[in-house]
Amino acid sequence: MPLMGKKNFRYLNKRITRLDAVDKVTGRAVYAADVEFPGMIYGGCLRSPYAHANIVRMDTSKAKAIPGVRAVLTADDVAKPTSWADYPYLCSGTVRYVGETVAIVAADTLDLVQDALRAIEVDYEELEGVYTIEEAIKDDAIQIRAHGVGLKDGVPNKDVKGNIFYDSYFPIRKGDVGKGFAEADIIVEREYKTNFVEHSYIETESCVVMQDPVDGVVTAHASAQNPFFTRRYLADASGAPFNKCRVVQRMLGGSFGGKEELVGMIVGRSAMLCLATGKPVKMVMTREESFMESPKRHPFHFHYKAGLKKDGTIVAWEGSQIDNSGAYNNQTQFMNCRAAIHSAGAYDIPHVKTDTYGVYTNNIHGGAFRGYSSPQIIFAQEQFMNEIAKELGMDDVELRRKNILVQGDLTATGQELVEETITLEMIDHMVEATDYYKKKEAYAKTKNNKEKRKGIALVSCYRGCGYGAETPDAGAAMCTANEDGSILINSGLAENGQGLKTAYAQIAAEGIGCTPDRINFVGVDTHSIPDSGMTVASRGTVMGAQSMRKASLELGAMLKDTAGKMLGVDPEYVDIKDNEYFISCKEVNQERIVRGAASLEIIPVDENGHFLNEQGKQCSIHDTVSMADVCNTRLWTGKSLAAFNWSEPRDLGLDHHTGQGDAFPTYSYGVVVAEVEVDMETGFVDVLKVTSGHDVGTCVNPDTVEGQIYGGIAMGQGLGVTEEVPVHKGQLGSKNFDSYIFPTAMDVPEMEAIIFECEDKEGTYGAKSLGEPATEAVGAAIAAAIADAKGEPVREIPCNLERALLGRTLK
Amino acid sequence: MIRFDYRRPTSIEACLELLDLYQDKAKLIAGGTDLMVELRADDEKLEHVNMVIDTTHMAALKFIEVEEDVLHLGPGITHEEIWENPFLQEYAPFLCEACHSVGSPQIRHAGTIGGSIGTASPASDPLPPLVALGATVVLASVNGTREVLLEELLLKPYITDIKANEMILSIDFPLLNPEAGFGFVKLGRRKALAISRMNVATYVELDETGKAVDVRIVPGSCMPTAVRISEAEAMLLGQVPSYELHQAIGEKVAEEMIKVTGRRWSTPYKEPVIASLVKRALNQATGVKDDD
Amino acid sequence: MTLNMVVNRKPVSVEIEPYARLLDVLRTQLKLTGAKEGCGIGECGACTVILDGETVDSCITLAASCEGKSIETIEGISDGDQLHPVQQAFVEHNAMQCGFCIPGLVLSGKNILDKYPEADRERIVEAISGNLCRCTGYKQVVDAIEDAKDKIDE
């Protein structure tokens, strides 16, 4: 079985302590809201209480008159009220969602900020709005964005006006579905829905923006997931060139895709206030503001239709995947590319036709959220697979085994899976490890219980690693050695809490040969390294670290070269252990050593390559030379101590009109088994156990891999059972953690992480994506287990008290 | 955040004088777990508040005493202190359970029983068992003291009959038979940090023949305030507890709920669920097994 | 008004607004930024501190109410570079990701072991049920606190 532990690495596959561990347990770690500068003042935002309204009057004079209030800005006061993205820093004219910012203030204290915000007078004229996917695609719906398009022959068409966001439309056309359905013995058709979900990182969006009075550089210390992305807002709002805009990422208190847009917005707004007042400005969102303005997980409506042979072979798959994008273009145009590529599940299907597109509504825009559409899609597809199995009278695990993608198969985009693909082994192992069939039988006996019933389900999924066809997966890394033998590494990708710094230190250690504790990772400072794209798409290790691997190998070779000279041998005979270089004779032709080092005679070696003295005991020649000595020697002989690498991905070539071609360099695979108990009288779902198996290619650090998997289980539990921001005509029904419910320590199930490894040549040292895979199938597995317990399908999540009991929410 | 001035009286008398002086401009703070949240949210009902009078430090409000079969509970006792009290564990286990289910450890360490009464949340966990216990609240003002049955003190969701110049001195209840059965069942959306979607406190005392002689059923988040449902209690009086009977009583509670609240958007969910919770709380009090 | 309290075993005296929250006094005036604000309503526990021996949410604790009281924050539980056993166990288990909730979780873990040195897993889980963590799924956190149990007073 391809379980973790068969690979031979020095520092990968090891439970190395996180680089930031001590800072985090002592409270010393500095997050953006902890940053303080002399003379710093505070900023705040005035937000629209309406989802769709015209601003008819705004009067800021009373706010400006308050002593200690230093600036009150509206769209009229700034050079560029709308950001480089579609949404405004400061809205004028029409507000399009509840919480949209119409004015900003800066004042000496937070109390004064509150006073100023209260003193601003705004009159609105409410407009009719569009809120749901159903409303948005109606022929007679009011149009809320000028460039929205409508449907023609069931697909988005630029000739028709409407609320569809055309750039987010991605079709997949593989084979001929008409032919496929004609060959089918049975056709199954179903619909599924998901709702708005909040990231709920515990740190709200925060920043301090200041300007250096000497060189004019504007610096933002921010809770930025992607510092270079945030810099775009800083430059945009301040009007300064990029080389005078600097973003310093502070310790990031969770993000999961969420600290992109809103962090950019508050950095931009703080820059405006900083430039207007000449003072450092701190802006920290309240939890309620974070709920209102941070992007959400896109709600989806799915319609799938599958044609099957009696033996369970899927021959045709057709579907539509429509998502609620909110009022502004944000990430739907990128995310739906991924959603389309994965629109036919982890299955080998010859004929596929799907259409994926987003619609504008008067809600906060959808954004990136761990999975980037996959948790919603996998939920729908995997429930659909179980409903198909039921129609066929077939075991649902067998249905998956029959259709799951294996090496050599073609994905929905026609990409041949050339790398090792261990899906069948994973399913079989997970069935065995969870005692699946025995439990299934035991839980079936609870089906006649009046009160509590148990269920179990297995789901499978796959995920394209990294950016893939969305955008080039390139990035920079730099490794610098210092005269004391310590190493500084830097990368354009950022620590988001996932353990990137630790993983990169391990990867750099592997390349250099030094111990990971010799390595320090500077946080991302946009003045220190080129823009390397975003730390998203679970690309950090698989693709983003390629440049770190290459730079560290290069530096390692440089140091070895000098060590060889100092030891008097060719560098190929030099090895390093515990940061000491020594002459390695492993598999060495001793004559060649002599040639490399004139002073050496033929000396016997043992089977491990250690030199032996006349008594046959291990001995050393010239002892060793330390990394510090090697680095010091390089410094004083004028040799480089640094290696920079820019790593570019190979060309893929996906045709966006047909959705055909290579979509990702490689794929990671997951199999998740969930067990639940459903209270049939109250709808309470107790998640008993989740066993989560992931093919990670190469496991860099088992502790952090397991941490991702456990955290992914908890997040998936929330998605499946409790998490929803209820929205009624644009008004949020939850704005804080009292009513937005995600699991506490008492709620999480028993968890088991099963780590698979395989051979894959695409990723860094064979590693594949995990951050998003860790959560993407959990909600689906739990929903399927609920369906198993209840004996009826779950077609909408979260399956909260009301949905579990009544099959619908109240209202 | 509503801004306010602050007084820390050192005696009950001084506190009453301050209350009398500031009237409805003042709010008492005990643990602050509700009040601080309401002040932060600029809660409309606190619009006029500009003074907070602190009782957190008052030892005179922290007591658990028994006097002639009546238990006197100081309003300054925290939820955690109730949960951990061995005497209450024996004589009012359902109150302990209810207090233990409030919020989180942090909330239970700070939040007080007096605060729970003052807040009068319809979703309160401690109020149903206190009503079931027949608790009386001793209120004091500069004009003297008065005692009011808790059930009557609770007027509407978040509204009590405590006057602006009054404070709670004690919560008293006659001790029930510790050999009798107590039940508390709570349904939340998660297992901790959960506001009750609904809850139920029950007390059932049986005679030697196994028939119920004292029955108390108090659902929470069901009626506008925590009240005993006498029509449902009557069904068990003089009867031997059974699963079927408890189920019928649960349905009766649901029926009574609808009589009072009418059929609302939430009724399709609440009607069957309160019936089930009542059944389970009665099962718990009487040792009847739930049907898994 | 003046507030006198003992913070991390040292007496402090600060001028505060009567409506100030304990969290703000700690973070802004005493520069103890280990306590974090996550929700402002006592739900997430990121602001947890130990007040007279019990954990509380400092975001809903009125600072003025802390007159004469003793407060322990994350900055006060280690002895110089010598981590508290609970902190050490978190490090050894890599029981953290973004780390924002970790000071609160460490304090809840320490507090339950102070009160119940023999606390079982169930009691530990309950003790941290007022500390929301979005990254870890809590498993490594609970493992760490359980592990620290055996190392206290060694």
Main attributes of the structure:
heterotrimer, B: 292 residues, alpha+beta, Uridine Diphospho-n-acetylenolpyruvylglucosamine Reductase, domain 3, Enolase-like, domain 1, 3 domains, five-stranded antiparallel sheet, three-stranded parallel sheet, C: 154 residues, Ubiquitin-like (UB roll), five-stranded mixed sheet, 5 helices
Describe the structure.
The complex is a heterotrimer of chains A (811), B (292) and C (154). Chain A is of the alpha+beta class. Chain A is 28% helix and 25% strand. Chain A is built from 22 helices and 32 strands. In chain A, the strands form nine sheets. Chain A has a seven-stranded mixed sheet with strand order 3-5-1-14-11-12-13, with helices on both faces. In chain A, strand 30 (727-728) and strand 31 form a beta hairpin. Chain B is α+β, with helices and mostly antiparallel strands and 292 residues long. Chain B is 36% helix and 24% strand. In chain B, a hairpin with a 5-residue loop joins strand 12 and strand 13. In chain B, helix 11 packs antiparallel against helix 12. Chain B is globular and about 55 Å long. In chain C, helix 2 crosses helix 5. Chain C folds into two domains: 2-76, Ubiquitin-like (UB roll), CATH 3.10.20; 85-149, DNA polymerase, domain 1, CATH 1.10.150.120. In chain C, a hairpin with a 2-residue loop joins strand 1 (2-7) and strand 2. The model of chain C has no long low-confidence stretch (mean pLDDT 97). Chain C has helices spanning 22-29, 85-92, 102-115, 121-127, 139-149, and strands spanning 2-7, 10-15, 48-51, 54-57, 70-72. In chain C, strands 2-1-5-3-4 form a five-stranded mixed sheet, with helices on both faces. Chains in contact: A-B, A-C, B-C.
End-to-end gap of chain C:
44 Å
Please name the CATH topology of the largest domain in chain A.
Answer: Aldehyde Oxidoreductase, domain 4
Work out the strand percent of chain A: 15-25%
Helix content of chain C: 25-40%
What is the H/E order of chain C?
EEHEEEHHHH
Largest β sheet strand count, sense and barrel closure of chain A: 7 strands, mixed
Summed up, the domain count of chain A is: 3
- Biggest interface and residues each: A-C, 58 and 53 residues
How many discrete domains of chain C? 2
Query: What is the C-level CATH assignment of the largest domain in chain C?
Result: Alpha Beta
Oligomer: heterotrimer
The structure class of chain C reads: alpha+beta
Tally the beta strands of chain C: 5
First and last CA, distance of chain A = 50 Å
C-alpha Rg of chain A (nearest Å): 29 Å
CATH superfamily of the largest domain in chain A: Aldehyde oxidase/xanthine dehydrogenase, molybdopterin binding domain
Major sheet summary line of chain C: 5 strands, mixed
